[in-house]
Amino acid sequence: MTVTTDAGSASSQNILSSPAILSVFLKLSVPMAIGMLLNGLHTLVDALFIAHFVGEQAFAAVSAVFPLQVALVALAALFANGTSVLLSRSLGAGRHQDGQRIVSTGSFLAWLIAAMVALLTWLGGPLLLAAMGLEQNLYADAWIYLMINGVGCLVLFNLSVVADVHRGLGRSNTLFLIILLGALANIALDILLVVLLNLGVTGAALATLISQGLAWWYGIRALNSKPELRQALRPYWYRGWARRILLQGLPVTLMYLGGALVMLTCTVQIARLAAEQGESMLAAYGLLGRISIFISLPMIAMTHSCQTLTAYHAGAGSKRLAKQSIKVGLLSTSGYLSLTALLLMLAMQSIAGLFSDNPLQVHMATDIAGLLYMALPLAGISAVAIAALQALGKPHLALVLSLAKTYLFMMPMLVLLACWAGLDMMWYAFPGAELLSVTLVLCLVFISRRQLWPTSEEAGYATSH
């Protein structure tokens, strides 16, 4: 594969090289946050359409497999996030040819992993649903929703790479338009396929898949001004870059995947212990899972913007600007999550009432939310810490934080509390895990404070392409 040198790329990086960190952060994060909220709106819109036009049983079935859909998004971050971080650092260091190789390798990984996931879904999906212990009346809808999303993940994975290339370039407005197109298309297709054509759960899944395809197409077209990067989207394997992309993306993937596994663990515990109220509690928790993802999207936009700025200035060798980027990220995420937690505490009953006329479901969702979001303002600390450590070339420390929060703290607490104290106590695992995670962040930063700035080797790039 021939890789061209981008002589004019530097001009597009002016926004990232500016020393006005807060201004650049806002220019990157605000459009991205708005776009991601619109994109995340489709999960709530899907829930509304399925609940109101298909039925409560179908909504419970989709809620049961929703964690697996989240797992696909987490898997996409493995190569998309790593591609974006390394692209920003390579451009900050003025190594534009390396940026093209990074994009080519990220695209190759997207196609390869998508093929593997599609095969595993087709062959292993029924076994997974059986292992979850779903009631027989939920199985058919759960399988069709899982199958369409799993086999069609090629579209999601390639969209993620293209979108994160724009993020790595600092093109927040283009990224906003990609997300906006996908969100609006999804809502329009939900109306067409679910309401007008009465395709039920199949229609909702196809609406998501087709809207992702449209956003992918637009993202590629938006790279026309960067023909060398559009050409680089053709899959090609550079071994040295593949290892670095996967290592960079692994902490974020484990963090997102952990969220999916937490949702799956709660779903399994509810199915196992809730007895006659199981279907109502599954629907209530499924709604809260979608709301949790929706409210996390602006935080993700902020951490991504913080990560992009930190990676760029770390690559350029500016320690002061990199530290300012991290501080802005911490203050922004903490402030946003504090306001969001307050709003949810005050308005959850009204919010839940929009999705269900069942008083039991509304009551369950309101009670669970009080514990679920108790320590929400602390969640931004660990998220920014993981993003910043990746940007500074410390993926191993980021990996420790990702693993600890979900796999060392959250999941064991969920299972132990559910088994020993019942479902009502299980929800205390969420604030408990947040407190333990923040404590670990503070300890790691204090212990490793002299080694946090990247060495010359960590600030460099693979030489074996």
Task: Summarize the topology.
Blueprint: H1 9-12, H2 14-17, H3 21-54, H4 56-92, H5 96-132, H6 136-151, H7 153-168, H8 172-196, H9 200-221, H10 227-232, H11 239-273, H12 278-316, H13 319-355, H14 359-372, H15 379-391, H16 395-421, H17 423-426, H18 429-447, H19 456-459
Key traits:
about 475 residues; mainly alpha; disordered N terminus; disordered C terminus; membrane; cell membrane
User: How many domain modules?
Assistant: 1
- Ends distance: 12 Å
The shape is: globular
Number of β-strand runs: 0
Query: Rg, please?
Result: 21 Å
Sheet with most strands: none
Low-confidence spans: 1-13, 457-465
Which whole number gives the mean pLDDT? Answer: 84
Strand fraction equals under 5%
Number of H- or I-type helical stretches: 19
Helix content: over 70%
Broad structural category: mainly alpha
The helix/strand series, from N terminus to C terminus, equals HHHHHHHHHHHHHHHHHHH
Keywords: Antiport, Cell membrane, Ion transport, Membrane, Transmembrane, Transmembrane helix, Transport
Pfam families: MatE
Transmembrane segments: 20-38, 58-87, 108-130, 142-163, 175-197, 203-224, 245-270, 282-301, 328-351, 371-392, 404-423, 429-447
Protein name: Multidrug-efflux transporter
